[in-house]
Every structure is written in C-alpha cells, then in structure tokens.
C-alpha cells in the first residue's frame, strides 16, 4: 500500500509508514554502511516488490477464514513482533516521550488500523487485483492533499495533468462507460478510501513527528504496537473470536504481517539509504502489476482488458505527480 512520496527537508528524520506496499517519502537515518554485507540492491528491490505485491493475495486468503478485523489484527501483531525482534537484537529502545506516543496513536489509526481493516473488508467482495490497483491511487490522493495542506508542494501543470490522468485511469479500471457494471461499488469504495487514508496519515506524520529523534524502526515498531491495541479492541467489540485456525489462511496472515508489514520495511529502509528515495520509490509502480498477476494466476481472478490498461494509466498519472522540475 502506498503513501505519497512528497518532499521535505532532508535534515528532518522521517517516520516510515508501517504499511505493506508503502515507501517512505524521504531517506531514514543510515542503518550502517549502505550495501555492506547485503545482497545487490536490485535483487532486494525485486523481492520487496514481490512481497508487497503479494500482500493483496494474502489478505484475500486470510479473509476466507477470518473476519477482516482479525486479518488486520494479525497483520499488525506479527509486523510489530518482527520489528521488535530487530530492536531487541540492536538493543534499541522504543520512544519514551508521551507526546510521541500520542501522535503515534493517531498515525497508527490513519496508516494501519483503518486502511488495513478497509482493505480486508473490501476484499470480501472485490478481487485482490482490483484492491492492488486501488492502492496505486494513493500517490494521486497524496498529491492532491499535499498541494492543499503542505506549503512546499506547489501545484504545477504537470502535477495537475498527472492527477487528471490518474483518475481517468481509475475510471477505466472501473469501466465507467459501462455504468460500472460488474464492479462491486461498496468494496471498491472501501479500497479507495483505504488508499486515501495513507496520504492523510502522512500529512499528519510530517506535521507532528518530523523532528522526533527515535529511529524509523523504533517509531514504526511503536506505531504497530499501538495499532495492535486498537485492532484488538475493535475485534473484541465487533467480532467474535475465531473458532478454528485453518492452515493456509493462518499462514497467509502471519506472512502478511511478518514479511509485508515487518521485515519488508527493514529492506525498504536499506534501499532508501543506499540508492535514495527517488529510485527506491519506483517499487510502488510494480505493486499493482504483481498483485494483478498473482490474483489471476493463483486465485483464478478474471482479468478484462480495461483492468491492465487502466492500471497503466493510473501509474503514469502517479509518476507525473511525483515528477520534479529540474
């Protein structure tokens, strides 16, 4: 899932999004010597694209046995567990400031609790491939919002063109000329709303946590802990406990959290530190392609011509909104 790759002063530390399929807008503090003792960045880039692209398939499989709130809860719980293990190995503490935890509570709600739940509910009625394409609209929402809320993001003709092109792509994916026939309106709306949550959350993060001294891993681990508490409360209020734990849905939720929401973020931090945010953010454009391919090949989801064509238009529009004048 994506967040807008908006710019801000490089001297301010950033809180990377605790989402799957999301890229931090700026480089986090270095995590050691870039590239030292690591796989080639191109291989890690490919792995990250696949992990985040498969997230929508994993959500789909998870919802076959578990309520959407339970899928979201397992996702943040296992993601938090993965990052807390990293912090334990590094002997790095979680943030201590009550103010930081208060802001992380809001960030967790906007970047994890609400969008993760919405995507899980959406995939009860729409294909995982469509959910992945809806996720690709996040940079479009982000650019539209940042031009309003962030003074450094000035509107340009290119960005307006990108916004228009991107939303034309959304209409193409949904088959607007056919009256949106064959598309579940509620599920699609939930997926688009989930994508909108990410830029709203990022604007909040940039305004409140930009100068927080803790590392991205510590902040994200703390954010996922808060999201776990939020989703545990929501699950207890609105759903009953699972009666069984089928193998494949359970493994899907564990993989979704551990790989897509936990360890993949570690890989993302290393990529941003090594090759910079501009190149690293290109992973965003591979996610819907992989999500669509996985849904069609592994889940037998139907693919009509307007879906890949519209997805390509959405990605072209998103790329235009991120382009900077030389």
Summarize the structure.
The protein is mostly helical and 326 residues long. It has helices at residues 41-53, 55-62, 68-90, 98-122, 128-135, 138-149, 157-174, 185-208, 216-238, 247-275, 277-280, 287-299, 306-322.
Rounded Rg: 18 Å
Write down the secondary-structure element order: HHHHHHHHHHHHH
| Number of DSSP strand runs | 0
Overall mean pLDDT stands at 82
Beta-strand percent range: under 5%
Shape: globular
Number of helices: 13
Structural class: mainly alpha
N-to-C terminal Cα separation, in Å?
28 Å
Write up what this structure looks like.
The chain is mostly helical. It is built from 13 helices and no strands. Helix 6 packs parallel to helix 13 (306-322). The longest helix is centred in the last third of the chain and has 29 residues, at 247-275. It is globular. Residues 2-17 and 22-36 have low confidence and may be disordered.
